[in-house]
């Protein structure tokens, strides 16, 4: 699998491309494009590969992705099952400060926005307190026509500028180069695909190292260098993310021990320890907090 150059076709009557998608799963290939992208995940869970880093995503998450940054929204395995009735839903905007918007970004009034994009060249996950406002701005641009596209786009930029740098979670380190070779892209994609297809089973270090054509020792160094995680810590986060969904999913959530084994943990003791280290609370406390919040919301309605 290569890092595919992706051409975003902007309509003749707009300075920005927007799309609303509802599909069985996200686009499966690591790719990049010269446009900045902001994606609001409305339905779907999985892992966002962005440059040399990875982030779990779930409904409500919003990501600003820098120009030419290799990225991939990798849906969880259940979205690819033959009998799956799951779907993803997302709304995205694509804009290029040097393309159709070149004249706009050349104005003195856009100095702050130019500086903002330069400072956050790889993008970041939108902090949760801003989710509602940013998702509203994305929809306004998507639904607009005529001069309202520009008007709503400026409102969107203004909302981005209100986000404080210390509140953001960068998608990857500033030192990361957006260039990645085809061979490196193929290796990285193979690793992610293997993890996402097998995380609910026991994964031997030797087996995943083989997907990268490396010795186990070399693989561990490579994985830490390119993701910032040890392989075990990343695998644990993927499993805990899956466990969180299963603990509260459906009309009747699975029991804690069932969730532990379904998510790939070999013992309930290990599951409880890892879950608390990742989430800051026990699985039982996580479930109680979720259901208590839902009860309060119902009462307020």
Automatic annotation (TrEMBL):
GO MF entries: DNA-binding transcription factor activity; sequence-specific DNA binding
Entry keyword set: DNA-binding, Transcription, Transcription regulation
Residue ranges occupied by any HTH araC/xylS-type domain in the UniProt entry: 189-289
InterPro entries from the UniProt entry: AraC-bd (IPR003313), Homeodomain-like_sf (IPR009057), HTH-like (IPR037923), HTH_AraC (IPR018060), HTH_AraC-typ_CS (IPR018062), RmlC-like_jellyroll (IPR014710)
Keyword DNA-binding belongs to the record: yes
Record has NAD as a keyword: no
PROSITE patterns: HTH_ARAC_FAMILY_1, HTH_ARAC_FAMILY_2
SUPFAM superfamilies the UniProt entry points to: Homeodomain-like, Regulatory protein AraC
Domain of life according to the entry: Bacteria
Pfam family name, one: AraC_binding
Coiled coil: none
Listed name of the protein: AraC-like DNA-binding protein
């Amino acid at each position: 699998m290569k890092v595919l150059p992706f051409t975003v076709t902007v309509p003749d009557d707009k300075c920005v491309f927007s799309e609303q998608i509802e599909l069985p799963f996200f686009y499966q290939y690591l790719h990049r494009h010269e446009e900045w992208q902001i994606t609001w995940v409305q339905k779907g869970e999985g892992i966002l590969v962005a440059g040399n880093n990875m982030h779990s995503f779930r409904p409500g998450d919003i990501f600003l992705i820098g120009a030419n940054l290799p990225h991939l929204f990798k849906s969880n395995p259940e979205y690819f099952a033959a009998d799956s009735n799951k779907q993803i839903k997302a709304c995205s905007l694509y804009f290029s400060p040097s393309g159709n918007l070149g004249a706009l970004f050349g104005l003195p009034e856009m100095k702050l926005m130019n500086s903002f994009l330069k400072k956050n060249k790889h993008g970041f996950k939108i902090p949760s307190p801003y989710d509602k406002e940013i998702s509203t701005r994305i929809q306004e641009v998507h639904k607009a026509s005529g001069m309202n596209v520009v008007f709503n786009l400026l409102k969107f930029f203004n909302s981005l500028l209100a986000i404080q740098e210390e509140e953001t979670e960068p998608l990857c380190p500033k030192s990361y180069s957006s260039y990645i070779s085809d061979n490196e892209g193929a290796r990285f994609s193979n690793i992610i695909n293997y993890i996402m297809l097998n995380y609910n089973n026991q994964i031997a270090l030797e087996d995943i190292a083989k997907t990268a054509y490396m010795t186990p020792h070399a693989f561990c160094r490579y994985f830490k260098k390119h993701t910032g995680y040890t392989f075990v810590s990343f695998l644990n986060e993927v499993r805990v993310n899956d466990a969180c969904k299963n603990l509260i999913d459906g009309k009747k959530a699975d029991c804690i021990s069932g969730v532990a084994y379904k998510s790939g943990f070999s013992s309930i003791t290990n599951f409880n320890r890892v879950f608390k280290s990742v989430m800051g609370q026990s699985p039982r406390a996580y479930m109680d907090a979720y259901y208590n919040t839902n009860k309060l919301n119902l009462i307020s309605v």
